[in-house]
């Protein structure tokens, strides 16, 4: 989870301090707390993680994706247009359909 | 999160007790604990949730997907064949590609 947080923060071009403050953490602990989350020495609650996701424009499941390709598909769904999401869903429905 | 757990358990045709025991919970508390998780009156740790995911054949991010369509895409990726995953990834790469 910590790796995904760092990955998303760097992609958004934010410092640990700015990310923490924008996600509602106290300015005095923001940087240290984000650093702990990224090194997985301290685990944020789901609520805090959801706030971080809002700032970074990534959905909550993204943080829990161990597989890089799955993380990328989750991001694509989250950031895709309506039409692009329908394409993903159409493909996924075909995959999930029980084999007759 | 509780809703996804119940959804996956029912789809797998397991009772709360059987699911809990198979995920390593004490038999004496398995049923009650899964019931609490499903009603979100008690939140499992990430480790417990990962074990539940192994029993139910769903990845950890699935439990945190609020959007049904995203949950379905996550399942499709997880359960899809290599070729099906490559299709999803190909589509996702196109969506994630920065607009020039």
From TrEMBL, chains A, B:
Protein name: DNA-binding protein
Keyword Secreted among UniProt keywords: no
Domain (HTH cro/C1-type) ranges: 5-63
Transmembrane segments: none
Lineage: Bacteria, Pseudomonadati, Pseudomonadota, Gammaproteobacteria, Lysobacterales
Molecular function terms, GO-annotated: DNA binding
Species of the source: Dyella japonica A8
Gene3D superfamilies: lambda repressor-like DNA-binding domains (1.10.260.40)
The keyword DNA-binding is annotated on this UniProt entry: yes
PROSITE patterns for the chain: HTH_CROC1 (PS50943)
Keywords of the record: DNA-binding
């Amino acid at each position: 989870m910590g790796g995904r947080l760092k990955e998303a923060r760097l992609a958004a071009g934010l410092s640990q301090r700015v990310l923490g403050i924008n996600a509602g953490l106290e300015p005095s602990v923001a940087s240290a707390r984000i650093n702990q989350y990224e090194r997985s020495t301290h685990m944020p609650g789901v609520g805090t993680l959801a706030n971080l996701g809002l700032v970074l424009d990534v959905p909550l499941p993204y943080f829990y994706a161990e597989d890089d390709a799955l993380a990328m598909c989750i991001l694509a769904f989250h950031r895709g247009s309506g039409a692009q999401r329908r394409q993903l869903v159409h493909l996924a429905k075909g995959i999930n359909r029980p084999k007759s």
